[in-house]
Amino acid sequence: MTTVLSPDELEAKLRGVGATRYHNLHRFHRALHDGKLDRTQVQAWALNRYYYQAQIPAKDATLLARLPTPELRREWRRRIEDHDGSAPGEGGVARWLKLTDGLGLSRDYVTSLEGLLPTTRFAVEAYVHFVRDRSILEAIASSLTELFSPTIISERVSGMLRHYDFVSEETLAYFTPRLTQAPRDSDFALDYVRTHATTAEQQAAVVAALEFKCNVLWSMLDALDYSYVLGYRGPGVFAGPETPGAFAS
């Protein structure tokens, strides 16, 4: 990118990233929502996705510490509260654990992270480090996958309820608040990027930041597909009923 885009042109380019790179296009995602996975494969998805959910507030905290104004810090602090809650048992991370509970997984096993795929760990930690180390503008831009999440959430909930008798609306309760939280957060982040990415270099950086975040989410599904659909599972990771301690008694 060598020409400065208008804010509307920049937004269109960012939305184009989602149209071509967001993980709703991944074949594991399609299989999950279309009822093509077995219980162990769904459990593996929820188990590995837990680490991503649990690290989101840590990621946001690294950015919060660098934001220069009270207004920005108040805005970003709300994201941490959404995920961590304001009391034990509240927030998105707690609701994700209700999902893994509902799938029969032991909460101690899930939170121990013992069964994670290596790619999950590497991808999530790369995202945390990206937000910690890159510019504030790039860090905020990387959150813009939330522009596309309401569609995937609606698809996920309806598809899983339709196809899997081992999930329920209560099991999937994590997703309901995200239908309003994600648009609120993405509206703020998009406005910030439109306002502050004013040079060709900055605009290229924010597009690259969103592409990076899409790659993080895509690589997590690549690993799940390779390990649990194609069957090339490495040592020490979650292996379904044969995994000691993985299931609630």
UniProtKB/TrEMBL annotation:
Residues 13-222 form the Thiaminase-2/PQQC domain. Keywords: Oxidoreductase, PQQ biosynthesis. One of its GO terms (biological process) is pyrroloquinoline quinone biosynthetic process. GO terms for molecular function: pyrroloquinoline-quinone synthase activity. It is an enzyme of class 1 (oxidoreductase). Its EC number is 1.3.3.11. Gene3D superfamilies: Heme oxygenase-like (1.20.910.10). It catalyses: 6-(2-amino-2-carboxyethyl)-7,8-dioxo-1,2,3,4,7,8-hexahydroquinoline-2,4-dicarboxylate + 3 O2 = pyrroloquinoline quinone + 2 H2O2 + 2 H2O + H(+). Pathway: Cofactor biosynthesis; pyrroloquinoline quinone biosynthesis. PANTHER family: 4-AMINOBENZOATE SYNTHASE, PQQC-LIKE PROTEIN. Belongs to the PqqC family. Ring cyclization and eight-electron oxidation of 3a-(2-amino-2-carboxyethyl)-4,5-dioxo-4,5,6,7,8,9-hexahydroquinoline-7,9-dicarboxylic-acid to PQQ. This is Pyrroloquinoline-quinone synthase. It comes from Tanticharoenia sakaeratensis NBRC 103193. The lineage of its organism: Bacteria, Pseudomonadati, Pseudomonadota, Alphaproteobacteria, Acetobacterales.
